[in-house]
Amino acid sequence: MDRLRSTDIKYIKGVGPKRAELLEKQLGIKTCADLLRHYPAHYVDRSSIYRIADFSGDMPSVQVKGRFVSFAVQGEGAKTRLIGLFSDGTKAMEVVWFNRIKTIRDTYLPGTTYILFGKPTEFNGRWSMVHPEIDRADSPNVSVGLRGVYPLTETLRNRGITSRTLHSIITTLLPRCEAIRDPLPQSLVAQLHLMPLGQALRCIHSPANNDELQRARLRLKFEELFYLQLNILRYCRERSQSVPGFRFARIGHYFNTFYKECLPFELTGAQKRVIKEIRQDVGTGRQMNRLLQGDVGSGKTLVALLCMLMALDNGTQACLMAPTEILATQHFETLSSLASSIGVNIKLLTGSTPKKERDLIHTALLDGSLHILVGTHAVIEDTVRFKNLGFVVIDEQHRFGVAQRARLWKKNSIPPHILVMTATPIPRTLAMTVYGDLDVSVIDELPPGRKPVQTLLRYDDTRMEVYQSIGRQLKLGRQAYIVYPLISENEKVDLRSLEEGYDIIRQVFPSYSVAYVHGRMKPAEKDAQMTLFAGGKAQILVATTVIEVGVNVPNASVMLIENAERFGLSQLHQLRGRVGRGADQSFCVLMTKRKISSDTRKRLEVMTSTTDGFVVAEADLKMRGPGDLEGTLQSGMAVDLRIASLATDGQIVQLARDSANRILDTSPALDSPELAGVRREMALMFDKSVDWRRIS
Ligand code: ADP
Ligand code: MG
Predict the structure, then answer these.
(1) Sign of CA dihedral 84, 86, 91, 96
(2) I need a surface site. Which of 356, 451, 478, 566 has the fewest CB within 10 A?
(3) Atom 11 of ligand 1: nearest residue by CA position
């Protein structure tokens, strides 16, 4: 593999310096090894030939065999196109080209038999194919069986580099695969019956049959996930051995007094269990890094407070960080009202804290008289220093990866324990990869007496009835959210729909006061509007998704989501969590146009059929792929996945994790001779600064 890694692709037959430059720019392919790792996105079956007369309905890409009858150029300027009439003896169809017209005219000859491969489309009863792949029927290039279709860019296509071109370039490399030494330890390959690397690379590009393809895919997916898990787990183990932590040995005054005298309600079983897990963890003398997952409204804040009190009882300070000013303020108010009476000193620090107050906070943190600091990102700035920070809670910050957490550890000579809280149900596979270095606790039980939010799917031609039912809720003294989607590419248009919506809502509900917020407002303006709603001065809040995270207005009992089909399921679930926070029956209305695809309907029906965030998240992951959530979480991950999918390869993730753990059990530093290959691969993968063309 090293030879392949150090060979620039420009030396391969059929590439040359120009194409090499293009491939590097467009696909990041520099070396022969990169090329071999550029896997097909999918495969097409080239084993059968279709008859044009049999074309019908929505066709996949197919092969046909026949001759060109005539060619004609049509249109002018940018619209110029070449039309070839192609007949296979059963019927004729049109073949269309929009560029490289002269080359095409010169290449393909009427009367010669060709095999075309492309997707037939129908217009007015006539079939056509745009830019098909074409081979002479007698050419040795004609492939049979499965053929890979490679990911390409538009630019590459326009410059005449097709999936075909790539395939034939890669094919010239395949004989060299035989010599590739498998970096995985032989024992692992044997135990899991994995296809050896060289063979897998050959088969992924040129599988003889489906069975072979599946084995190759399994091997390459496994390998990718295995290195990733090994990296995460190695890091975890090292950290837990080398980094000391605070040992919270005692439960003292603050915790006990609060627990006995101030607890506003009996803790749920799940809350108790989680607190116990955390207590055990912080008692070991090692630094805790834990993820606390719990659906919206499951009572994570109270758990966080009890943990922070534990920290105070052991002579340290605590800090809670939230993603927005609104949320930080809410947390500050909640915590103050709960814990001030037992003599806990809590302060709020955000971007808008005045200088004078800020200075006071800095001093109080250093002399230890300030016990708990609540705030936004402002709390991790270097100017904020603690006397002895023992516990940090991070609420709803998915971009807060290992690197950022590491910054917090440095705030103290002994790194504080860290609790990351999220209401976004992170499916297992994602949690194992992206948050794979954290231990996980789950609150899987809501406080008693909550009525699940009733979710309804409604079409916009029944809008008036929906408004009427919202009116009934308002009459009962409740409040309502009305949410509009915001799509980043086109914020202007969406803003207009929000503004129009705002006007309509004011007309429909003239006797109520309507507040409104969107992402492009100044923070102060936004806060002012939110405060109107949170304080009950406005009964209706018209908003974009900025209200998604954490906002708590228990009196709000109904939410109307416009164009619900434009939201992801997890996002809908988050939004829905803004209602149903009080004792009243709450409602969430998903509004769409009447004509939606059956897939969309299926997606939305997940929402109407369950209120369980994990069910929603799993469904979302299956239907859309890791998409948004993965995107948001990417920062926490070290490498991109090329072939494995976190959405569908859950079992392989687990297998990779188990295997990585076993390897680390026997060789914690990965220094056994059998692991030389693995060590090398990992160094290459996780140290991106090495350019291998420069080395050999
Ligand atoms: P989240 O997990 O979404 O952050 P919160 O901590 O904001 O949830 O809690 C939601 C609401 O539930 C709050 O009003 C809180 O006071 C209440 N709550 C928390 N724990 C309990 C409990 N054990 N019994 C009853 N109500 C609770
Ligand atoms: Mg919360």
Answers:
(1) negative
(2) 356
(3) 297
